[in-house]
Design brief:
With 178 residues, the chain is mostly helical. The two termini are 16 Å apart.
Amino acid sequence: MEDSKVLTPGMSRTLTVTQAAIIAALYTVLTVFAATLNLASGAIQVRFSEVLTILPFFSFAGVPGVTLGCLISNIIIGSHLFDIVFGTLATFIGAVGTWYIGRLFKRSNALIIKLFAVLPPILANTIIVPFILSYAYGLPDSIPFLMLTVGAGEVISCGILGTILISFLYPIRNKIFK
């Protein structure tokens, strides 16, 4: 039991897996909803589910949660195999970065670090996803445009909505993420 408390002190392995599953399910539902509005894939993406990429700031359960949610979502909405694999990798990289920032925040408690929690998913997706879209969907010479559009979608979903979610969850974090 002791090894299960390494990544998120005080959390049992069962609680971590349960929270990760809930996060994955929420991510999937939100992505499928965005897909019905044609916002989940393509050059212009505003995945509402990307707001959940700030959850690793509070708990390690957010890392596998958003990663599996992205994987499942990309399969359900019919993404290209290259998009499924490397899009999920981009989400994983962003989630790990956010988790690391959360660890730094817990050690220093500096308010400014909390504001940086949205940056890893924005940067990972803005840099990686345009290359995926260009290759997988045959959009040559479009990478700068895709960086702009994917980056804008990430700023909306992660930057703006993610900051609001962090501000909302922060006061009750110890009740939700034990």
